[in-house]
Amino acid sequence: MGTGAEAVHAVNPWVAVAYLVSGVLFILALRGLSSPATSRAGNRFGMLGMLLAVVTTLVTHIPGAGESYTWGSSFVLDTSTLFEILIAIAIGGTIGFVTARRIQMTAMPQLVAAFHSLVGLAAVLVAVAAYLNPGAFGILGTDGNILTVSRIEMTLGAAIGAITFSGSVIAFAKLNGNMSGAPIILPARHVINLGTLAAIVVLTGMFTASGQAGPGENNLFWVVVALSFAIGFLLIIPIGGADMPVVVSMLNSYSGWAAAAMGFTLHNTAMIITGALVGSSGAILSYIMCRAMNRSFISVIAGGFGATASAGGEAKEQRPYKRGSAEDAAFLLKEADNVIIIPGYGMAVAQAQHVLREMGDILKEHGVNVKYAIHPVAGRMPGHMNVLLAEANVPYDEVFELEDINHEFSQCDVAFIIGANDVVNPAAKTDKSSPIYGMPVFDVEKAKTIMFIKRSMSGVGYSGVDNDVFYLDQTMMLLADAKKMVEEINKALAD
Predict the structure, then answer these.
(1) Given a cut of 50, is residue 65 above it in pLDDT?
(2) What number of other Cβ atoms are within 10 A of residue 410's Cβ?
(3) What is residue 62's predicted lDDT score, i.e. its pLDDT?
(4) Pair 259, 405 in one domain
(5) 188, 469 Cβ separation under 8 angstroms
(6) How many domains does the structure of the chain reveal?
(7) So what's the pLDDT on residue 10?
(8) Catalytic residue set
(9) Whether residue 475 sits in one domain with residue 355
(10) In whole angstroms, what is the distance from residue 175 CA to residue 296 CA?
(11) How many helices (H) and strands (E) does the chain have?
(12) Taking the model in full, what pTM does it have?
């Protein structure tokens, strides 16, 4: 087997077909995950595609198989090495399975951020391994230096992976409450960020053009990796907690591009396809969410778009409001013709999705038309509320996105808000000084009656601004734990 510039990574046709099928399964997975009704099938397609890709990769490196590959000798797996890999897969798979089974839905955003960090770290480790032992990866030229194109792939993969890792660590800490969700504003942060990014680009170019890029001989690679870890922290710390759904989505995109870059280094078609799919779909989702929040897509990448997220941090001066009971709410709900339920993160914290679905079922038995309205950024990650409602077996045809249902609030008898705040705050439409100004929100103020469940009047939304809806004439505040309040409403409805 040859290595170096003359090496041609010819692909066994059966291996190419296996990777192609794997890629198609990943595409079907993304297609299935685009709708709650097909999400289970989408997950199965993704699992099957990953299983096929992993098995194919292992089989091609077992002695006697895949000889059409011109890999370095280190890529040939003997029995003991294969056994070690299988043990590692079993350990990792068991940890992932147990974690996914035990994790609460309220902690799902943190879990996603943690998984993104692992993907980023894996990309960095692969890049470091390729840099230190390029012969094993088939990227060593005849002159003893790493191939130019491989230097680009390796450095890009390491840089994106490092940014993904450190950024995901900060996102996890903010979501998990280990650090404040408020923006941490550094002096001259834009100059620091742009300067660091420019340095990464320049040093990557210098490393690529360097004539002395043999195994472990050029310290420019290590400098790029170190700066990339640093910029990951710098990009995320100035972003407020209210904007975390977009951050999680963007980090998902970064992890995909890191995997794709490493796919080139490893000459693995399935990895390139998978990384490109994750990267592009994550970028598209981030763009959609930015539009939903009236944010600039470029400012997401620049990492300072949440810098004013705590501008309205203090609640407004206390104003008179109407407080109701579960019995009051039950009476009005039973008398209504149309009820629109708007869930938010408070519902997730209280684990109230199941009792909420029960309330909807009881109301439908009384002839009430019930619908659920989901804002694109409700919760702490993309699709958070959709997953919760699906977990409670809420019918998919009763769940609507903002643009599909917002016009119905003017004919709505009751807007039932449970644990949401920023996504129903009219300040986004009227107060130019508000940190959420310009973000599309539900027009709940047009409903005949508004029921608002929150723990107390002292709290404000995750963005740190008060909500004028609390004090409207048609608003009834239901101050209690969301799950407990809905349970009491259900009892009153049953009586």
Answers:
(1) no
(2) 11
(3) 66
(4) no
(5) no
(6) 3
(7) 52
(8) 422
(9) yes
(10) 22
(11) 17, 6
(12) 0.74
